[in-house]
Amino acid sequence: MVRRQLELIGEDPDREGLLKTPSRVAKAQMWLTRGYGQTASEVIGDALFAEDHENMVMVRDIEMYSMCEHHMLPFFGKVHIAYIPNGKIVGLSKLPRVVEVFARRLQVQERLGEQIADALEEVLQPKGVGVVIEAVHLC
Ligand SMILES: [Zn+2]
């Protein structure tokens, strides 16, 4: 399919620089969409802790790289996550991993934010959760 795309844009898929491009694109696509094979509870694992802490937990500026479902072009930026615990907290290093689970799929920015929030809602049952995404789209 990538070979055909190269032909359609007027390229010669048999020239040296492009010979391995179809298999490189396939590998890159697998990597960019690896989130389909993962779940939030999997990546959080046992990093859930009972804790009476009642103040808002906030992690800002989590790096996010995703791909828009309309053009399969990158969009990327920062995710800010805040939640108010309800007896449980999650290891802070796990929040970027949760972002990855959903970012590494074909996405729209709004759904990405919702899925991250829903996953944290499910795992933590917090008193509240908020997710803000600031992103730049290449499309
Ligand atoms: Zn797009």
Domains (count)? 2
Average pLDDT for all residues: 96
Low-confidence stretches: none
> What would you give as the CATH superfamily of the largest domain?
GTP cyclohydrolase I, C-terminal domain/NADPH-dependent 7-cyano-7-deazaguanine reductase, N-terminal domain
Helix content: 25-40%
Give the ordered list of helices and strands.
Answer: HHHEEEEHEHE
Shape: elongated
If you had to describe this structure to a student in words, what would you say it looks like?
The protein is an alpha+beta fold. It folds into two domains: 2-31, no CATH class; 39-137, GTP Cyclohydrolase I, domain 2, CATH 3.30.1130.10. It is 36% helix and 29% strand. It has helices spanning 2-8, 21-32, 40-44, 94-103, 109-124, and strands spanning 48-50, 57-68, 74-84, 88-90, 106-107, 128-137. A four-stranded mixed sheet has the order 5-2-3-6. A two-stranded antiparallel sheet has the order 1-4. Strand 2 (57-68) and strand 3 form a beta hairpin. Helix 4 packs across helix 5 (109-124). It is elongated and about 65 Å long. The model has no long low-confidence stretch (mean pLDDT 96). The structure holds zinc ion. Zinc ion binds at residues 68, 70-71, 73, 139.
